[in-house]
Amino acid sequence: MTGSSLSSGTGPPPLDAGLIAAGQPLYDVHCASCHGIDGTGAEGWKTPNADGTYPPPPHDSTGHTWHHSDRQLVGLIANGSDFAQSRMPAFGDRLSTGEIEAILEYIKTWWGPEERAAQWEITQQEA
After folding, report:
1. What string of pLDDT tens digits covers the 127 residues of the chain?
2. Burial of 50 by CB count in 10 Å (0-12 exposed, 13-18 middle, 19+ buried)?
3. What is the spatial distance between Cα 122 and Cα 117, in angstroms, rounded to a whole number?
4. Residue 90: which domain range?
């Protein structure tokens, strides 16, 4: 990833302001209707709907987005979810990898230092 590529430090690299600026309007258009304009997700996101699917989770520190590596998250956005109870659609036909990476960089602004560090470690382990 451009703004989240491996660095020589022990913690996560600083977020890339240019990617954040590019990611916010893309998030607003493609993600906010389900995950909330502020990344808080749908109310009751841990409780299945009547059809067995789950509401969209939050992308902030209260959710589980930060439990996944950059590669997993980019793939999930591009290809949709393979989790049977998810309704996450694929966006790879509408967004480039660079646009998806920008959205992810924007999402990371909602994570606290502990979540950023944990997610960075997961990303490093998968690299």
Report:
1. 444 444 445 789 999 999 999 999 999 999 999 999 999 999 999 999 999 999 999 999 999 999 999 999 999 999 999 888 999 999 999 999 999 999 999 999 999 999 999 999 999 999 8
2. exposed
3. 9
4. 17-126
Q: Rounded to an integer, what distance in angstroms lies between the CA atom of residue 89 and that of residue 42?
A: 16
The number of C-alpha atoms within 13 Å of 26 and in the hemisphere containing its C-beta is: 22
Q: What is the CATH number of the domain that holds 40?
A: 1.10.760.10
pTM score of the predicted model: 0.90
Half-sphere exposure of 121 (CA within 13 A, CB side): 7
Give the three-state DSSP class for 102: helix
Within-domain flag for 3:
no
- Which residue do the tokens 């309007």 mark? 25
Domain count, the chain: 1
User: Is 76 part of any domain?
Assistant: yes
